[in-house]
Amino acid sequence: MAQLLRVQNFTVSSDGIGAGADQSLEDPFGSGIDPGTMFAWAGATASWPNRTEPGGSRGLDDYFTRDFTHDIGAEIMGRNKFGPQRGPWQDHEWRGWWGDEPPFHTPVFVMTHHERPSFTLSDTTFHFVGGDPATVLDRARGAAGGKDVRLGGGVTTIREFLDADLVDTLHVAVCPVKLGSGLRLWESPDDLRDRFHLEIVPSPSGVTHHLFWRR
Amino acid sequence: MAQLLRVQNFTVSSDGIGAGADQSLEDPFGSGIDPGTMFAWAGATASWPNRTEPGGSRGLDDYFTRDFTHDIGAEIMGRNKFGPQRGPWQDHEWRGWWGDEPPFHTPVFVMTHHERPSFTLSDTTFHFVGGDPATVLDRARGAAGGKDVRLGGGVTTIREFLDADLVDTLHVAVCPVKLGSGLRLWESPDDLRDRFHLEIVPSPSGVTHHLFWRR
């Protein structure tokens, strides 16, 4: 079986915005983005990886949170998904936004031009890698033990891999809130129809799941 | 985490019928039921367990076929899902409808009042067990290695476990074909609303996914 590159549970606003432009340690998603609103659909499900209490819904949205780890052997993320730093790494003590128990449970490849030693938190190992998308994907596939690779985001990273035509499937949850400005995944989901099949599935929670797979 | 009892990918007609009453070796689903029509929605997906060729859709329906094995450690099935025999086992050479590579990959508990030794085909071991639903579920949970148990069907078996209030979640795909007679899972999916949340999700393939989870 081919090892797919999959975007999973990526959430954008109704106008296609996934993050504010000005991310900081206090504002991981940038100003104007309230992750509590954007990810409410996922947080309400039984299988949400960060859930600390029992309960949660087991309807449609749960199939998507439940699928987050399914047959995934590695993740690729942009540097901004790891932390707010820019330029050479200053503070190796700060080890990312993901806490001592990151929800990835696989090798994670953080794309950066700046070298930094790998480290492990619980069962997630972060590697810091340069190179173009195809090179990084090769490394992630090699580490994935035959499984698929998840492309974690953010917007800029997903766009780079789309431009390089390396993405096999995307699940994007469109949240019924308009943001106006920020980092935009698309002008319209129709932008991708030339290369992908698209199914649009409204959820009772209010988000609309967009499922793309390569033609 | 609790070990759930889950019905997965169970397909019924628009009038709630899952099988004909007169199953035989030639007609596993009973007369009047064409499995090619009933399961076309699943067979078209990339993750359909019996798929022999590459390709297949990766939209909504694929999330359901993909979830078939997710966190499942054992299956319970009624005797009719194993084979058409009734009464004491006559022919131990015939080892079920599922071929040399059954799609279960876990212990399977076949409910029957008639003793028969366990046997293994590939990575699926079939056990033949008597007793009431709660007793059989205890055995399946014990064999599931902490994972969930799938309740495979058919209709009669699912109804027995519903009557005993042992089912935690159900995914039922309702196919847009009316059968008129046969074994009926429900008069209406609303029958279960007193005990279950219900989300109804239409798929572009024509089936309507019904997702139930315990209130």
Automatic annotation (TrEMBL), chains A, B:
Residues 10-190 form the Bacterial bifunctional deaminase-reductase C-terminal domain. Signal peptide: none annotated. It holds the Pfam family RibD_C. This is Dihydrofolate reductase family protein. It comes from Nonomuraea corallina.
